[in-house]
Amino acid sequence: MAFYQLEKTQKIPASIAMIWDFISSPVNLKEITPPHMGFIVTSNTGAEKMYPGMIITYKVSPLLGIKLDWMTEITQVKEHEYFVDEQRIGPYTLWHHQHKIVAIEGGVLMTDIVTYQPPLGFMGAIANTLFIKKQLQQIFDFRTIAVEKKFGKFITK
Asked: In the 8-state DSSP scheme, what is residue 130?
């Protein structure tokens, strides 16, 4: 069974505290998800910030407008450095998403590493080649633009 990895980095002209406050709040997920995904947080997390053991549930329409339930657990958190979410219920056989931030000159380098395995064995591998990989890239491209709109574009000196 194949698994895949997507790594995306973005430089952001903001402080670690500002970026952490934004990315560690479940309510901000919708803001950085393409509207066509129909993304809705359905759980009452009971907290403004993520913590280990937090369960977050969503409705999402990744394909043909079909609504799916998705549940992730925040498994690791190191404030102002990283957190990890892992799918518990959802469309993938495996979903492990690392969100890392580090201070750089002029701002923050944010890195996402998504390790995933589509369902259905070799048919999932074909689906990954045909559309899953492309769709994930498009989601992260949208997020890059949304984060730039919120925090500004990083200017390299």
From this structure: I
